[in-house]
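Case study.
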Amino acid sequence: MSTPSGTASVGPAKIRIRHLQDAKERGRPFSMLTAYDQYSAKAFEAAGIEVLLIGDSVGTTVLGHATTTGTTHQDMLTFTGAVARSVHRPLIVADLAFGTYETGPLDAVNHAVELVRAGAELVKLEGGHALVPQIRALVNAGIPVMGHLGFTPQSVNSLSGHRVQGRDAAAADELAENALAIQDAGASAIVLELVPAQVAARITEVLHVPTIGVGAGPSCDGQVLVWQDMAGLSGFHGKFVKNFADMRGDLTRAAEQYRAEVTERTYPGPEHSFE
Ligand code: KIV
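After joint prediction, the assembly is written out as follows.
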């Protein structure tokens, strides 16, 4: 596969969980981006992104909800299907929506089965110790699990907003204990969100499964960003985000140019018109 910059992407034709594990063991960081639709997913595949996450952030980034608690299971099925049908190489991870797994292992498995049918290869859920029964049940059902610790957006109300987690020693210890608990229950990888860099480094060191950081410093085994933040489309400039493009500016300028040419009747020209 060749990337837009012309560099051939190395590695397997299809990314599997074991490749993330290999990457950790070799000390080679990998990249995860959110994706919700065909064209963005294809662009990220062409760029060699190893993991695509159909995040429940689709509720805020695409559907206009204030928080991810508004994202439904049906939303997750729709957008997971769109991405999974569009790409071949990246590992496909889909979020279990708020309210679809907290109630117990049976609910977790039933909803995860539907995500797998829609094309997910792993399911992600948010939380620690309390979810050990759900994680065990999913793994026993043959469904690999990605954990999510630190700031867990579905708990935004009980966490009193978007706040860095694990700042003091007791909270950092609790975070590490939760990470070990969900690893031992069978999680194949763990997202660490809004965690001090040194705490994420410590957790990454003690776990044998890969960590994937978002606002968790450079020592995690992989990194993840919401793609509209990465590409400068969302207008979100949080400390942990780097805009690798100015898609909002580019799109606005393109739309202004389109409007100007329509107004001036220079678009469509003869070359865009049928005889
Ligand atoms: O839903 C999402 O986009 C996420 C990432 C921030 C990890 O969970």
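Observations recorded in class. Strands lie at 30-34, 51-54, 91-95, 122-124, 145-150, 189-193, 211-214, 222-225. The first helix runs from residue 17 to 26. We will return to this complex in the next lecture.
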